[in-house]
Amino acid sequence: NSRGTASLLKDNISFTEVSASGLFEGHDLLRRGFTSVKNELLPSHPLELTEKNFQLNQDKTNFATLRNIQGIHAPLKLQMEFRAVKQVQRLPFLHSSNMAMDILRGNDECIGFEDILNDPSQSEVMGEPHMMMEHKLGLL
């Protein structure tokens, strides 16, 4: 089966695998914390995977329903709007409420967990703006 073996072969190596932040870099303890093989292999609770993928599953269900009701153009238009809203971001050290995404998803009138306990002034992770921007741009 030539098709199966061709997909396993890799013709090129991406720049990130060779760069300092790629494959050969050691584990960054300050950014990622301590590692545990058990945490990487198994979820800590049976519902953890379902909870992680909740928004993705809900979006897929909504897109399928929208496609059945209005046709293929409606979910495609909504996905393009989602992509456009995700591209517009603040600097990494500034807090963003992502109000446009909440409006597109219909969560703008709902009060959730993240609305109460997502106060940036109480955040455990406060970074230096220059380092955070360099990390986002891939300079570190």
Q: What features would you describe in this structure?
A:
Keywords: Chaperone. By secondary structure, this protein is mostly helical. The chain has a domain at 48-114 and 127-137. Helix content is 56%, strand content 0%. It has ten helices and no strands. It has helices spanning 2-8, 15-18, 29-32, 37-41, 48-52, 54-70, 73-87, 99-105, 113-117, 129-137.
Map the helices and strands.
Elements: H1 2-8, H2 15-18, H3 29-32, H4 37-41, H5 48-52, H6 54-70, H7 73-87, H8 99-105, H9 113-117, H10 129-137
Provide the low-confidence segments as ranges.
1-10, 15-19
- Compute the CA-based radius of gyration: 20 Å
What's the overall average pLDDT, rounded?
A: 77
Distance between the termini: 42 Å
* Order of secondary-structure elements: HHHHHHHHHH
Percentage beta strand: under 5%
- Structural class by secondary-structure content: mainly alpha
What oligomeric assembly is this protein in? single chain
Count of DSSP H/I helices: 10
Give a short account of the largest sheet. Answer: none
What's the helical proportion of residues? Answer: 55-70%
* Strand segment tally: 0
Q: Characterize the overall form.
A: extended
